[in-house]
Write a structure and sequence with these properties.
The chain is 5% helix and 37% strand. The protein has 322 residues and is mainly beta. The protein has a 6-stranded antiparallel beta sheet with strand order 3-8-4-5-6-7. The longest helix has 8 residues, at 34-41.
Length: 322
């Protein structure tokens, strides 16, 4: 992601925005500071951290007794660096954990420059060593045990879900216990996104862009597939237990297609779909998948590596299965 793709909630009464136009509603911290961005993504920390005269490096102490803390990295947690620990300066640093991979964490934050040469007061995303962090602040519903949150529950967020939707602005948004964000991705009117958690934490969203192409966007990578979708239809995405994801969608040819992480192109399954309907895909424990869709005959079909079945069960037109 570029810095411009790391967003916040739309500007509202009492909101604050930085120079990149990233805004958070009701965030009392100074725009551009690391505390401003972390509180914008996790507003549940604001009652315990704002107005107490301490800096970012003291947040672990500020929330003690109110929010669970610990040393295990987790998606949706706030990473805290105490003053002069690792690359943090005299005031410490805080950032939002967007993904966890082995001994590294993907941090969304503001006002961070390991080289001490800037740019300052800007939001960006970068990988750092999890061992450099002084501690993590988890969500109030986590019970201090983040372990399950990297195994694919919900959308990979700390408290068990992440939602994706098309806002009334036409832009893709996501929202979870850690806060919401405008992903600044234009969607085709009348279509809906699909979201799946990733086995290592984080999430991926699939949607029909306002160009008509299938786009996959999230913490695991951004992919413009350049694969045209049928107008008025929406894709479905599922995470694979062994890593990555699989997307099913109706192509602009009317045929059922799939697209997988890192693929050089999609796969035409040569299955005709009914107009204005969308497929649904589910991952299986062996790393494969099954797809359900309304065929151009009006019947429910199930299609995947394990089973190709014409159920001969008629579906209402135009509806989509799950």
């Amino acid at each position: 992601m570029t810095a411009g793709q790391l967003g916040g909630l739309g500007a509202a009464s009492g909101g604050s925005c930085n120079s990149q136009g990233i805004c958070f509603a009701n965030d009392p911290f100074a725009p551009g500071q690391c505390t401003w961005y972390a509180a914008g993504r996790r507003p549940d920390v604001i009652p315990y951290t704002y107005g107490n005269g301490t800096n970012a490096g003291a947040w672990l102490d500020d929330v003690r007794g109110h929010l669970p803390t610990g040393s295990t990295p987790a998606v949706g947690a706030i990473a805290v660096w105490r003053p002069n620990v690792g690359p943090a300066g005299e005031y410490g640093h805080v950032g939002y954990v967007a993904a966890v991979s082995g001994g590294s964490i993907l941090v969304d934050d503001s006002n961070w420059s390991p080289s001490w040469s800037g740019p300052w007061l800007l939001v960006h995303e970068h990988w750092v060593s999890a061992s450099s962090v002084s501690g993590y602040i988890y969500g109030s519903g986590s019970g201090g045990n983040p372990g399950g949150n990297n195994s694919g529950d919900g959308g990979g967020s700390l408290n068990g879900y992440e939602a994706a939707f098309q806002a009334n602005t036409g832009s893709l948004f996501h929202f979870g216990p850690g806060g919401g964000a405008d992903d600044r991705q234009g969607m085709m009117p009348g279509t809906s996104p699909s979201i799946a958690s990733l086995p290592g934490g984080g999430y991926e969203m699939a949607f029909q862009a306002n160009t008509g192409d299938l786009i996959v966007f999230g913490t695991g990578g951004n992919y413009n597939t350049h694969l045209g979708m049928k107008p008025g239809t929406s894709p479905s995405i599922a995470s694979a237990p062994g890593g990555g994801f699989q997307v099913a969608f109706q192509a602009n040819t009317g045929s059922l297609w799939t697209y997988s992480a890192g693929a050089t192109g999609g796969v035409d399954l040569a299955q005709g779909m009914n107009n204005n309907t969308s497929p649904s895909i589910a991952a299986l424990s062996d790393g494969t998948y099954e797809i359900a869709f309304q065929a151009n005959t009006g019947d429910l079909f199930v299609f995947g590596p394990h089973q190709h079945a014409n159920t001969h069960l008629g579906m209402d037109n135009p509806t989509s299965p799950s």
